[in-house]
């Protein structure tokens, strides 16, 4: 088939023009349009994800601010900057109060400790009473247990001492007991030599009470070992 065609124009004679080939240049219009649409969709999805993340971030911030408003009084009408400043001042105030309270507290020692000393704690109601009374300060640190206080009171009663003050601190299964004990001078009791002897008696009594913790712990540990051995021997059968 001929690839030329005759065309009669205004000029004389035929004009031979080339016939358009069926293998023309492919149009890039549809491809360019599809690529543009895809990129627009990607940008739209990215903006949507960013918008959702920003919304969640603002919600978290507002939730935290609401929590702070509930914790700190008189902050309902404050803006964010004023609220944060108020919270900082409130935390500093709480820290100062906690520090001042902690300075006046004694923490129980990790090991058993006993201290005993004679003390002067002011005058009694009359001069004769003041001359006939003596005071002892006793402290014991040991493991906490239900019968501890009863054992201490029994020991003091056996030594004819009366408890006029008791400060008890408990932390992590340990206890510190500080007692101010009062005794009456009778038949030479309360003199220098006898007072030293009484202090030693109080110290020995408290040391025996504190040592019961070690005995109880050893007995409990031994019993636990026996139970474990019995369990594993039965399991191996």
UniProtKB/TrEMBL annotation:
- Matching SUPFAM superfamilies: HLH, helix-loop-helix DNA-binding domain
Domain BHLH intervals: 45-94
Instruction: Enumerate the residue ranges of region (Disordered).
Output: 18-58
Q: List where Low complexity composition bias occurs.
A: 21-39
Q: Which GO terms describe its molecular function?
A: DNA binding; DNA-binding transcription factor activity; protein dimerization activity
Q: Which domain of life is it from?
A: Eukaryota
Keywords on this record? DNA-binding, Transcription, Transcription regulation
Among CDD domains, the record links this protein to:
ACT_UUR-ACR-like (cd04873)
Q: Mind telling me which InterPro entries this protein's record contains?
A: AIG1-like, bHLH_dom, HLH_DNA-bd_sf
Gene3D superfamilies with a match to the protein in the record: Helix-loop-helix DNA-binding domain
Q: Member of which family?
A: Belongs to the bHLH protein family.
Protein name, entry field? BHLH transcription factor
> What is the originating organism of this protein?
Dracaena cambodiana
**Gene name of the encoded protein:** bHLH40
């Amino acid at each position: 088939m001929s690839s030329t065609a005759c065309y009669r124009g205004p000029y004389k004679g035929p004009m031979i023009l080339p016939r358009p080939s069926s293998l023309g240049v492919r149009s890039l219009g549809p491809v360019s349009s599809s690529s543009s649409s895809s990129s627009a969709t990607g940008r739209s999805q990215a903006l949507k994800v960013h918008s959702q993340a920003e919304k969640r971030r603002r919600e978290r911030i507002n939730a935290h601010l609401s929590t702070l408003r509930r914790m700190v009084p008189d902050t309902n009408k404050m803006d964010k900057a004023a609220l944060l400043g108020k919270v900082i001042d409130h935390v500093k105030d709480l820290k100062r109060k906690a520090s001042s309270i902690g300075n006046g507290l004694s923490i129980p020692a990790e090991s058993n400790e006993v201290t005993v000393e004679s003390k002067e704690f002011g005058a009694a109601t009359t001069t004769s009473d003041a001359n006939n009374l003596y005071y002892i300060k006793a402290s014991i640190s040991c493991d906490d247990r239900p019968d501890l206080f009863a054992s201490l009171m029994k020991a003091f009663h056996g030594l004819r001492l009366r408890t006029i003050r008791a400060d008890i601190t408990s932390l992590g299964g340990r206890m510190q007991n500080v007692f101010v004990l009062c005794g009456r001078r009778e038949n030479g009791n309360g003199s220098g030599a006898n007072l030293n002897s009484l202090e030693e008696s109080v110290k020995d009594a408290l040391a025996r009470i504190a040592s019961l913790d070690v005995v109880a712990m050893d007995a409990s540990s031994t019993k636990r070992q026996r139970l474990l051995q019995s369990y594993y021997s039965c399991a191996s059968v």
